[in-house]
Specification:
binds zinc ion, about 200 residues, mainly alpha
Length: about 200
């Protein structure tokens, strides 16, 4: 029973941290052209171009599936990086003070895993609606609109799952851009940077 409090603390801390990690990863890796270069190319030059304004936000063509999800190792790697400082701190502190570090760390790891799955799952379903009851939920509509705005205003609304970091760091907005048609040039940019070995027709 004594494991409940540290486990709950782990859930809360990991959820808050995950929102900030998601924000930082999205802003500084997915939208900045540096190492590893593939992050920027796949997200900004392919995904954001294939899905831009409202007319292309939903994935209807085969081509638009590209870069809709991360590589399989993305989640485990991010969770490992996010969890390492806590694990080292807990290991160091365990020599000094007897606290229930194990349930805290397990709860953190599980919460980060759920957060990552939620990010990937929700992001996929925002672009490719497949679950009608989820689509009707107010919270999902709110998050989807939040992400729709990001697809045009790329320096706003970095969070997909929990917009806490957007609020705290001043990038939260509900102001949608003026309606517009996605220019043909967007598709051409995506095609030029596509990671698929596809012949452009
Ligand atoms: Zn997206
Ligand atoms: Zn983005």
């Amino acid at each position: 029973m004594s494991a409940i409090v540290p486990a709950l603390a782990g859930v809360v801390v990991a959820a808050v941290q995950s929102s900030f990690v998601e924000w930082a990863f999205h802003r500084y890796w997915l939208h900045r052209p540096w190492l590893p270069k593939g992050c920027f190319t796949a997200h900004t030059l392919v995904h954001h171009q294939l899905c831009k304004f409202d007319d292309t936000f939903h994935v209807v063509e085969e081509e638009q599936h590209e870069a809709l999800t991360f590589q399989w190792w993305g989640g485990p790697l991010l969770i490992l990086i996010a969890l390492t400082p806590w694990t080292l701190a807990a290991w160091g502190l365990s020599h000094v003070v007897a606290l229930p570090f194990v349930p805290f760390l397990i709860a953190m790891a599980v919460t980060m895993g759920v957060y990552y799955a939620g990010y990937e799952g929700f992001h996929h379903l925002m672009h490719l609606p497949r679950i009608p009851w989820l689509e009707r939920k107010a919270f999902f509509q709110f998050l989807k609109r939040h992400h729709r705005i990001h697809h045009v205003r790329m320096n706003r609304n970095y969070n997909v799952l929990l917009p806490l970091a957007d609020v705290v760091l001043g990038t939260f907005t509900t102001t949608a851009p003026a309606r517009a048609k996605t220019p043909d040039s967007a598709r051409l940019i995506a095609r030029r940077h596509s990671g698929r070995t596809r012949q452009a027709d």
